[in-house]
């Protein structure tokens, strides 16, 4: 990893959220009681020249919990398909490959990063290289990336922090195309609750006076996500994936209640794992 800091101020809009999520994960990983072991995220954050303070406080667990949830599902797939291809759509500045590789679940899987050219350029400058990592510098909505996926040994597609920023028709089309192209594969995505997305669409989500969260046009309820098995051809199973335990009694009580009390379904987001038939 380069010792010279790279200016990331050119990232704007949705791409800039990659810096926000990186800051939160790195801040969590620096803690002595961290719930996420992510030394590469710490090094990456330290290698970037950016006014991270504009995002407000980074003392939060949500991005680390999300990362752990995606890691757990990815490793589960790789245990059954050790030579699979993992496709990370709109990967941003996530460091999932390095955490999963360090877990020892497999040394055969390959990784395909799909993201816009400015993000890919930052990743290639600052992250440790690997001959198992490949990149497509393009939008996830440009489906030509699918032609570059080696799917003979299985495919696991992640859309971590992506679909909420797409228009509903775009998000549903992406899910449907993945189901069509990769039978036997899986796809995992997360979405905010309707109320949270409404706040973002109306410019009401401001972690600080200097930063407003970009609009989130797309969201699904718990029931809506479950219904994908009926509305998207090729989806043969839908799993509502709970967050793992975090740090602190209050956080864990809220997580426990959110996934066990049906009346709270409308208040929580969804993390959904799809199996393609």
Write up what this structure looks like.
The protein is globular, with a radius of gyration of 18 Å. It is 38% helix and 16% strand. It is of the alpha/beta class. It has a single domain (61-276), classed as Rossmann fold. Strands 5-4-3-6-7-9-8 form a seven-stranded mixed beta sheet. A two-stranded parallel sheet has the order 1-2. Helix 1 packs across helix 2 and helix 1 (13-30) packs across helix 3.
Q: Give the CATH topology.
A: Rossmann fold
* CATH architecture identity: 3-Layer(aba) Sandwich
Runs in which pLDDT lies below 50 for 5 or more consecutive residues are none
Number of DSSP helical runs:
10
CATH class: Alpha Beta
**Rg, please?**
18 Å
Q: Tally the structural domains.
A: 1
Query: How many extended strands?
Result: 9
List keywords for this structure.
277 residues, alpha/beta, Rossmann fold, two-stranded parallel sheet, 10 helices, 9 strands, globular, transferase, Class I SAM-dependent methyltransferase, methyltransferase activity, TcmP-like, SAM-dependent_MTases_sf
Quick rundown:
The chain is α/β, with parallel strands linked by helices. The protein has a single domain, classed as Vaccinia Virus protein VP39 (Rossmann fold), CATH 3.40.50.150.
